[in-house]
Amino acid sequence: MTLRRLRSVHSSRQTKRNVMDIGIIGSGHIGGTLARQLTALGHRVSIANSRGPASLAALAAETGATAATVEQAARAHDVVIVTIPQKAVSELPRHVFAAASAVVVDTGNYYPSRDGRIAEIDGGLAESQWVAQMLGRPVVKAFNNIVANSLATRGVPAGTPGRVCLPVAGDDVRAKQVVLGLIEALGFDGLDAGTLADSWRQQPGTPAYCHDLGTAGLKAALAQADAGKIAHSRAEADEAARPYFAPTSARST
Questions:
Q1: What letters, b where the CB count within 10 A reaches 16 and e where it falls short, cover 34-49?
Q2: CA–CA separation, 173 vs 228, rounded Å?
Q3: What gap in Å lies between CA 19 and CA 42, rounded to an integer?
Q4: Which stretches of the chain score pLDDT less than 70?
Q5: pLDDT at 2
Q6: Beta partners for 167?
Q7: 158, 179, 188 from 183: Cα distances, Å
Q8: 77 CB neighbour count, 10 Å cutoff
Q9: Strands (E), 68-118
Q10: What is the C-alpha separation between 137 and 115, in angstroms, rounded?
Q11: CA-to-CA distance for 206 and 83, rounded, in angstroms?
């Protein structure tokens, strides 16, 4: 759903939906897109990155989001979205997350060629389970298996043929419902994809990863994922993504 359409329906929907205080940590493709979409829906959004609020002045001016520090964004009351490379998760303020009551959403994916080796994940821990351990609190896995362009452009009203469905995995039913509600408001179907331990089914290299599937297709893709192939699927996905993580000067033209 385009920003224009989101804004056009905002006033009629807002009486039925509470305005939420949402923090976004990470201003890359997914973080920036979510900042645009969620502010268009009328939510109060603060956005932070490792470079500090001054680096976010243009995005804040464009969207109406508040440029913030990481700690400020992590203190959002309702939802905190962590959308940074896996290797940076350990640098987040654990004490802030551990004390917070907001729903924490992890959109991240583990790519060893970018993040280095993480022994616990390589040993079989689901990526978002590791994130939860690093933050000292439960998280919900969502928005990790859609590319930013699809997130920005493929949202459509409920019932539209071909509507993209996004999986949501986590251990807290209420938290998942909050995230499923955001997904619906953004113009996508949402699917409860099980517990956080089940979130490996939407990790890089799996059939559910970045294919813009409808609800039936996503259910089938999640079911097709093979636990015995996690390492192989990750290696294939990592090799395919490796050129995108190389320094700009090292990329082929």
A1: bbbbbbbbbbbbbbbb
A2: 28
A3: 7
A4: 1-17, 247-253
A5: 55
A6: 191
A7: 11, 6, 6
A8: 13
A9: 79-82, 103-106
A10: 22
A11: 20
